[in-house]
């Protein structure tokens, strides 16, 4: 026999016997595009040197924080110079292709961090106000909350082999449910429960057509989004706005005793609203569900090789249904956030594409709950950065700053994710022999 | 006592698995008609039949994946109705699938517990799962690492996992569905050892195959299936010719008569050919090869060692990383596929359903798929239907393509006749080089004979013929020289009469010298070593 386990490698999805490996065309393209991107950004920073004056100040505390930290002042010109040079060096390193795998990751990280620090230093240098670092990070978590929950919904569906493009629609319907039920009951808890149920309802629609009737799942998702937009808009115009069913209570933030007193981290992480905490807890919960329970093993098996699951007596459709419905709970709770964390009012299509950003987080997070959540937080960070930098009165037009999360999405999806491997049967309806 | 009363009184004497009168129809097609089959503990029962004879349908019924229209399954004296595989598993039936039912990204242990996970409160107890894997693999002498990911394991080891998976569910009756297709001769020996030891443990084994040699080596009893019905039963002593006759329904010659032929100039030359799969693994690794006009060079090897990629890279449907391909002295590796076809490259793809023809097109249309744009089939932008149809009539007669008409969809033909369409199309023009990948896979024995004759005839016309085959019988029948491929490289080139043992060792990566040393054969029968 041809020996025991060969050490040769991490072949993914290959019918080849294990053997020698080379850099693939895709990886090479990824390395080059990241290298070019980082180099260009570095050169851009060097170009901005001429427009960098004075010191850049970074505020580490808000006015109301219990522990006040000093505002850090950094010399603008040298810092931008260093960051620019670091980016150029990292980019050049990637372009030469002489870096080993680990160092490629390092170069990518240096490039990203270098750009961020350099850009912020330039933006804050010589301005009247300091850049509010603590505010930026605290708001990042708030903005990311629905994205994290939506991404978890996506991960659950797609791990079971059902593509979920309808996260946006789930958000919308759930948000309206939260607004109406919240108004009637004046209870945050009931609003969240109603939103979760609405999310499950949308998930059931997705499941019926995707699993039972085997409709093309991407088309189906698009249609469900249109349906959600139409129905919520109709109900809003025809019913809820007239009958004053559109003013739900709004969540207040809950400071966790003790933890919220930690300097910097406390007010940033442990002074959020209930849904943010719920999102934070949901990530490890979904991870345990998927990777430590027999339910999760079965869900992943029907997403990878449904026939194999069928031949050991697992109901493929049953597992897919359950995963899609459980995902609906998370998407629904995410939808509630838009109402309960903001004004309590539902306005037409106001989720603003967040569901699609959550979908991007699923893909960039490689269908893993932890990574997907991290990517959702990254998008939250980019969104928040756009609005924070606006307050500094930089010469960059605010429209460009608002584009930041979407540009980040495009760059990330196109260039940075590299080799991703969806569940092998993602999007493929299952039919018995 | 009524016949269908589940009676356990004398179940010891009744211990057997019995299928009686199994009939299954798909629309108007009768896949199984009134099949009877019996399996006793402690025997190996071979189910022999051609592709499409209905073996797999029968086994899917036995495993609960399909429900029979008529007939009965009786396990140990108790009639059973299987609505799903779970019922079959619970009745003590296990299956080793031809296409492994293993989740690639799971570990061995995870695959083995899937569907019956040990643990409490829904949480999996992986330690217990690992222990079970270790116990079972020790009990049956099938060693595997419980934590290895399936995708990192060689095919032979994956099959062990598949066997262990069936045993983990306490199967007493085991079905092996075409288990040898993906194995080297040595691995087949090993598998047969395993099957014998399972039999000696008192398991009942059903072994499905279409390879006569294997049947005779291992069977205690043989049931031959033809066109969905039992065509005969036999003992292991029956001759190959007689088994083949039962399987096909008429006499067949199992060897091709082939004259010696002088090889001419080199018509296909590969140097440094390297192709890389999408995941970075090197499928074809710096490969050099020459094929002369008037010779058949067979590439032997276990599936998944880069042969398929090599063939596709030759015709230009798989990207080439580096190296050159020369046809009649012209460098063609930058050519498009169409230009390569025009340069005299003929191609019979491995997966004909997918790459060989357009199933929804007629026989006539498929016969001109590579030349419809040129005279005489085209005039300017218009197709000349009359010429295309008369060409089709000639080819159908010449290649004995069994079709109701030249306007029939190719998808409606049998596998053998589909392959004849592909071959007829490729051979109906002047070729420099013919690349044929698995030319007779899934083809009935009668058609194999014909296809082999045509390939030899093409050689005799002076074409360089490169055949890629995983069937050593085919290699032995056709080759003038045999190149053995392993992990993307040619490990050696030997003569056509090289013993299976030597070829088998080379297919596992041994060089010619190593293989012959450990196979301990005299070199006289392996003349013409060219490495």
UniProtKB/TrEMBL annotation, chain A:
Keywords: Cell membrane, Membrane, Transmembrane, Transmembrane helix. Pfam families: BPD_transp_2 (PF02653). One of its GO terms (cellular component) is plasma membrane. It is a multi-pass membrane protein. Its main location: membrane. The chain crosses the membrane at residues 32-52, 72-94, 106-125, 137-156, 163-182, 188-211, 218-236, 274-291, 323-344, 356-382. GO terms for molecular function: transmembrane transporter activity. It is found in: Cell membrane. This is ABC transporter permease. It comes from Microlunatus endophyticus. The lineage of its organism: Bacteria, Bacillati, Actinomycetota, Actinomycetes, Propionibacteriales.
């Amino acid at each position: 026999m041809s020996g025991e386990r060969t050490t040769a490698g991490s072949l993914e999805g290959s019918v080849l016997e294990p053997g020698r490996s080379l850099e693939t065309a895709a990886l090479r393209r990824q390395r080059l595009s990241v290298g070019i991107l980082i180099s260009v950004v570095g050169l851009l920073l060097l170009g901005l040197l001429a427009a960098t004056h004075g010191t850049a100040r970074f505020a580490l505390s808000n006015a109301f924080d219990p522990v006040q930290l000093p505002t850090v002042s950094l010399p603008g010109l040298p810092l931008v110079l260093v960051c620019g040079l670091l980016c150029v060096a990292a980019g050049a390193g990637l372009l030469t292709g002489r870096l080993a795998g680990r160092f490629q990751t390092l170069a990518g990280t240096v490039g990203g961090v270098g750009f961020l620090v350099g850009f912020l230093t330039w933006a804050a240098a010589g301005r009247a106000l300091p850049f509010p670092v603590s505010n930026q990070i605290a708001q990042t978590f708030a903005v990311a909350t629905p994205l994290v929950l939506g991404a978890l919904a996506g991960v659950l569906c797609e791990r079971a082999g059902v593509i979920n493009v309808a996260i946006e629609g789930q958000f919308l319907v759930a948000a309206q449910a939260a607004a109406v039920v919240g108004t009637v009951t004046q209870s945050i808890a009931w609003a969240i429960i109603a939103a979760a149920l609405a999310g499950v309802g949308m998930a059931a629609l997705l499941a019926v057509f995707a699993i039972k009737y085997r409709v093309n799942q991407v088309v189906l998702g698009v249609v469900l989004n249109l349906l959600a937009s139409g129905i919520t808009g109709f109900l809003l115009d025809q019913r809820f706005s007239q009958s004053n069913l559109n003013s739900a209570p709004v969540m207040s933030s809950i400071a966790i005793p003790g933890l919220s007193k930690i300097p910097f981290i406390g007010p940033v992480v442990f002074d959020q609203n209930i849904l943010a905490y719920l999102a934070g807890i949901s990530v490890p919960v979904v991870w345990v569900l998927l990777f430590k329970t027999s339910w999760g093993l079965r869900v992943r098996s029907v997403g990878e090789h449904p026939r194999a699951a069928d031949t050991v007596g697992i109901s493929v459709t049953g597992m897919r249904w359950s995963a899609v419905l459980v995902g609906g709970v998370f998407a629904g709770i995410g939808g509630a956030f838009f109402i309960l964390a903001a004004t309590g009012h539902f306005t037409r299509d106001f989720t603003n594409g967040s569901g699609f950003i959550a979908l991007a987080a699923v893909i960039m997070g490689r269908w893993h709950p932890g990574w997907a959540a991290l990517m959702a937080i990254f998008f939250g960070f980019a969104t928040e950065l756009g609005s924070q930098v606006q307050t500094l009165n930089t010469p960059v037009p605010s429209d460009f700053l608002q584009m930041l999360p979407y540009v980040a999405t495009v760059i990330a999806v196109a260039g940075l994710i590299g080799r991703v491997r969806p569940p092998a049967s993602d999007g493929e309806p299952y039919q018995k022999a | 006592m009524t016949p269908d009363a589940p009676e356990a009184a004398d179940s010891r004497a009744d211990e057997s698995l019995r299928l009686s009168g199994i009939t299954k129809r798909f629309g108007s097609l009768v896949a199984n008609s009134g099949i009877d089959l019996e399996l006793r503990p402690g025997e190996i029962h071979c189910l022999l039949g051609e592709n499409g004879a209905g073996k797999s349908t029968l086994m899917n019924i036995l495993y609960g994946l399909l429900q029979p229209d008529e007939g009965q399954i009786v396990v140990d004296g108790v009639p059973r109705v299987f609505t799903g595989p779970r019922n079959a598993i619970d009745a003590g039936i296990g299956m080793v699938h031809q296409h492994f039912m293993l989740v690639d990204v799971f570990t061995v242990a995870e695959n083995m517990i899937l569907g019956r996970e040990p643990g409490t409160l829904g949480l999996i107890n992986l330690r217990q799962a690992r222990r079970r894997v270790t116990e079972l693999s020790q009990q049956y002498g099938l060693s595997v690492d419980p934590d290895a990911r399936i995708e990192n394991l060689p095919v032979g080891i994956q099959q062990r996992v598949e066997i262990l998976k069936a045993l983990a569910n306490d199967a007493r009756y085991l079905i092996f569905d075409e288990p040898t297709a993906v194995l080297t001769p040595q691995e087949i020996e090993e598998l047969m050892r395993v099957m014998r030891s399972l039999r000696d443990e008192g398991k009942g084994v059903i072994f499905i195959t279409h390879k006569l040699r294997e049947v005779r080596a291992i069977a205690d009893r043989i049931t031959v299936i033809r066109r969905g019905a039992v065509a005969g039963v036999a003992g292991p002593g029956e001759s190959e010719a007689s088994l083949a006759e039962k399987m096909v329904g008429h006499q067949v010659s199992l060897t091709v008569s082939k004259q010696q032929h002088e090889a001419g100039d080199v018509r296909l030359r590969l140097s440094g050919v390297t192709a890389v799969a999408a995941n970075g693994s090197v499928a074809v690794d710096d490969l050099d090869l020459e094929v002369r006009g008037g010779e058949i060079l067979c590439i032997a090897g276990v599936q998944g060692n880069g042969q398929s990629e090599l063939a596709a890279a030759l015709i230009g449907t798989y990207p080439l990383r580096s190296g050159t391909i020369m046809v009649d002295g012209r460098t063609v590796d930058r050519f498009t596929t169409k230009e390569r076809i025009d340069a005299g490259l003929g191609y019979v793809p491995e997966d004909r359903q997918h790459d060989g023809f357009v199933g929804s097109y007629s026989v006539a249309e498929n016969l001109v798929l590579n030349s419809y744009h040129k005279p005489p089939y085209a005039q300017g932008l218009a197709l000349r239907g009359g010429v295309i149809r008369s060409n089709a009539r000639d080819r159908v007669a010449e290649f004995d393509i069994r079709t109701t008409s030249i306007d029939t969809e190719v998808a409606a033909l049998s596998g053998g006749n589909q392959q004849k369409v592909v071959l007829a199309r490729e051979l109906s023009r002047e070729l420099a080089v013919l690349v044929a990948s698995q030319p007779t896979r899934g083809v009935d024995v009668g058609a194999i004979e014909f296809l082999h004759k045509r390939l030899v005839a093409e050689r005799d016309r002076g074409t360089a013929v490169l055949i890629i085959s995983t069937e050593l019988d085919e290699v032995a029948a056709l080759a003038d020289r045999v190149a053995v491929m392993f992990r993307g490289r040619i490990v050696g080139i030997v003569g056509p009469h090289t013993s299976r043992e030597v070829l088998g060792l080379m297919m596992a990566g041994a060089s010619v010298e190593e293989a012959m040393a450990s196979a301990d054969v005299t070199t006289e029968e392996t003349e013409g070593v060219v490495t």
